[in-house]
Amino acid sequence: MTAASTRATPARNSSAVDGAPPPTGPRNTSSGPTGSTLYSSLRAVAPALPPPLVGLEVRDALAALAARLPPVHHAGFECRLAAAAPRVDLHQGFVPTESVLAHLSAYLACDDRRRRPPWSAVARFAARPPAAVRLLVLEFDGAGKRPSAAAPSVFFSLTPAARGGRDPDGLAAVAALFPGVFSARRRQSLLDLQHRLPARARMTDLGLRRSGRRMRLRVVVGPLDARQRRRVLAACGWHARDALESSLAPLHRIVAAAMLALDLDEGIGPQVGVEFYPGDPPSAAPAWEALLAELVRHGWCAPEKAAAILAWPGVTTPCRSGSPPWPDDLIVRSLAGPAERLGVLQRRLSHVKLVCRPDGPIEAKAYFGWRHRWVRGRPPTAGPSPGPRSSG
Question: In this structure, are residues 154 and 178 in contact, taking their beta carbons and an 8 Å threshold?
Answer without folding.
Answer: no
